[in-house]
Specification:
- By secondary structure, the chain is α/β, with parallel strands linked by helices.
- The protein folds into 2 domains: 483 residues, 3-Layer(aba) Sandwich (Rossmann fold); 118 residues, ANL, C-terminal domain (GMP Synthetase, Chain A, domain 3, 2-Layer Sandwich).
- It is built from 20 helices and 30 strands.
- An 8-stranded mixed beta sheet has the order 12-11-8-6-7-14-15-23, sandwiched between helices.
- The relative contact order is 0.10.
- The structure holds ligand 6R9.
- Ligand 6R9 binds next to helix 11, strand 20, strand 24 and strand 25.
């Protein structure tokens, strides 16, 4: 197959082959894995599932009532037991599960045994606060060990968690708490960001003025900032943990019980609660983590993604811990106190596997190679990329200046909805091409199809779809199965539509081109144009708004907004500033528009649809595409002459 060195590639000059010595020791070295997983994907996934700890094995691998799937039907397990308890029997109990460094430089090491104790205690704290199996717990925390502990404690007692990224605003938090009807919120007083304490508890307080479901708030003391504690509602983590019992029997969960909900932006204003279940999700993330990162017992694995995103869930918590890995967790920013902080950490902790995002790599490129060059990165043996298409220049820079031309790069395409990686090279097998996520993972049926759902020919572009169910797939949109069907399963008959466009090259390699729907990918984070638009029109000065993603050198895409103002309101630089902070307040800093352009009218079709395509051309300074359906050409003139 393609791992043969004599295989001819149509684009030979761009091909990077796995190093022979790496391949010889790789976890996956037999290319026939693709064939047999392809012939019997249910059998393949069942074999992967058997590597987990089950109280009871399943009666049936897959129950598929399209588009609703159940995997490992009748199987019983607990995700926390798989991530923690099962490593306690042998020597691994004294292995570091988490090595943490905070932004100020504080360090914590938790062995698997330590993790077991802390998780069990916190599970008891949650129970004591009234959390029972099935109750949702919202976690709004920075990257500290207590966030991992809180997630695993929820999993232990069968309480689905819902993480909300710490950069989200009080209002975004409120909406997510209300949609999930969370009973308890776990947060911190504040978090460290470039030497400053950024309040989190304050946002929780603001959110909770409009959340009736929340009964208790647990506050981890992180920065020591002064916070308000509501009597009868708010408790300190450190206080509760003091006397919590160390034994907590895990709940025996059904394979299909919800493990967590995670909100993600879609094409309409309201974020979707993506539902992941226990058995299939854990199977998917554990298997892919082991195979993609070629995990060995003595690796130190670092995933820079925040725990509030799916990458943090799957490849910082569940996948690596289920595999008994040593996970490095870092709270801070890459440029604080210096621009070599990441490389300093790799040198200091001898990190071997490093997983980050293209947006970070482009930033490192901009800062220059002297920062990594000054550090010993010889411990690294594999690099990963996730979150957005990686441009070939960034890939080559990563390969040369971080991997020092020794480390394979796994460019991993996947989504919150897919739960685990769907398209990526296997590091010991797959020759890579800079910028291509290469090919579907074993047992996964990804294809690129045209408007009619027919596979595109080699060299052509189309829509990225998934044709068969997979264990870690989302099961539904929380409380909205219709939206699940409409969003993902209605575009093409019997196929899951990813929302991404892709090209398949002459060698069959997949090149993901980015979103083809109304989702903007800013620094690897998804933002719905509709969310930003509705935030803008809520502002008293704005009559109408259209938001697009335009190409941005560092962020991949940036939010660009076009607005028309209400009668009598004049455009001014202060208003632009005010609108930007209004969006940040409504959604979070990530969604803050890069620029806001004021127009007297937005370009629309004769049927009244805003022509975002033209706005994109304007924002990117391109020659305008087809304008024949435009209702009033004068509108464009004004926008162009800005
Ligand atoms: C894991 C994650 C999903 C969207 C996805 C796509 C983009 C992610 C990518 C990639 C090209 C990669 N994306 N990884 N595009 N190459 N390796 O990022 O999940 O936050 O849900 O975003 O991100 O557009 O559809 P999520």
């Amino acid at each position: 197959m393609f791992n043969q060195r004599n295989l001819a590639f149509a684009t030979e000059e761009q091909v990077y082959y796995p190093d022979v010595s790496f391949s010889a020791r790789a976890n996956v070295r037999d290319a026939r894995i693709y064939d047999w997983a392809g012939m019997d994907y249910e059998g393949f996934w069942a074999e992967e599932a058997k590597k987990l700890h089950w109280y009871k094995t399943w009666d049936k691998v897959l129950e598929w009532q399209s588009p609703f799937a159940q995997w490992f039907v009748g199987g019983k397990l607990n995700a926390c037991v798989n991530c923690v308890d099962r490593h306690l029997d042998g020597w691994r109990r004294n292995k570091a599960a988490i090595i943490f460094e905070g932004e100020p430089g504080d360090q914590v090491v938790l062995t698997y045994q330590d993790l077991h104790r802390e998780v069990s205690k916190f599970a008891n704290v949650l129970k004591n606060l009234g959390v029972a199996k099935g109750d949702v717990v919202t976690i709004y925390m920075p990257m500290i060990p207590e966030a991992v502990i809180a997630m695993l404690a929820c999993a232990r007692i069968g309480a689905p968690h819902s993480l909300v990224f710490g950069g989200f605003s009080a209002e975004a938090l409120r909406d997510r708490i209300n949609d999930a009807e969370a009973k308890v919120v776990v947060t911190t007083d504040a978090c460290w960001r470039r030497g400053k304490a950024i309040p989190l508890k304050q946002n929780v307080d603001a959110a909770l003025t409009q959340c009736s479901s929340v009964e208790k708030v647990v506050v981890v003391q992180r920065t020591g900032s002064e916070v308000y504690m509501e009597p009868g509602r708010d408790v300190w983590y450190q206080e509760e943990m003091k006397n919590a019992p160390v034994v907590c029997q895990p709940e025996i969960m059904d394979a299909e019980d919800t493990l967590f909900i995670l909100y993600t932006s879609g094409t309409t204003g309201k974020p979707k609660g993506i539902v992941h279940t226990t058995g299939g999700y854990l199977t998917g993330v554990t298997s892919t983590h082991r195979n993609l990162f070629d995990l060995k017992e003595d690796d130190v694995y670092w995933c820079t993604a925040d725990i509030g995103w799916i990458t943090g869930h799957s490849y910082l918590v569940y996948g690596p811990l289920a595999n008994g890995a040593t996970v490095f967790v870092f709270e801070g920013a890459p440029d604080y106190p210096e621009r070599d902080r990441f490389w300093e950490l790799i040198e200091k902790y001898r990190v071997t596997l490093f997983y980050t995002a293209p947006t970070a790599i482009r930033l490192f490129m901009k800062w220059g190679e002297s920062y990594p060059a000054g550090r010993d990165l010889s411990s690294l043996r594999l690099l990963g990329s996730v979150g957005e298409p990686i441009n070939p220049e960034a890939w080559l820079w990563y390969h040369k200046h971080i991997g020092r031309e020794r480390c394979p790069i796994v460019d991993t395409w996947w989504q919150t909805e897919t739960g685990s990686v769907m398209v990526a090279p296997l590091p010991g097998l797959t020759p890579t091409k800079p910028g291509s996520a290469t090919m579907p993972m074993p047992g996964v049926s990804v294809d690129v199809v045209d408007e009619l759902g027919e596979p595109v020919k080699a060299g052509e572009s189309g829509y990225l779809v998934i044709k068969k169910p997979w264990p870690s797939m989302l099961r539904t949109v929380y409380k909205d199965p219709t939206r699940y069907v409409d969003t993902y399963w209605s575009r093409f008959e019997g196929m899951y539509f990813t929302g991404d466009g892709a090209r398949r090259d002459e060698d069959g390699y997949i090149w993901v081109l980015g979103r083809v729907d109304d989702v903007i990918n800013v620094s690897g984070h998804r933002i719905g144009t509709a969310e930003v638009e509705s935030a803008l029109v809520e502002h008293p000065a704005v009559a109408e708004a259209a938001v697009i993603g335009r190409t941005h050198e560092l962020k991949g895409q940036a939010v660009s907004a076009f607005v028309t103002l209400r009668e009598g309101i004049a455009w001014a630089p202060e208003l632009e500033k005010d609108l930007k902070s209004h969006v940040a307040k409504k959604i979070g800093g990530l969604a803050r528009p890069e620029e806001i352009i004021c127009a007297w009218e937005l370009p629309k079709t004769r049927s009244g649809k805003i022509m975002r395509r033209l706005l994109k051309d304007i924002a990117e300074g391109r020659v305008l595409g087809d304008t024949s359906t435009l209702a009033d050409p004068a509108v464009l003139k004004q926008l162009m002459s800005r």
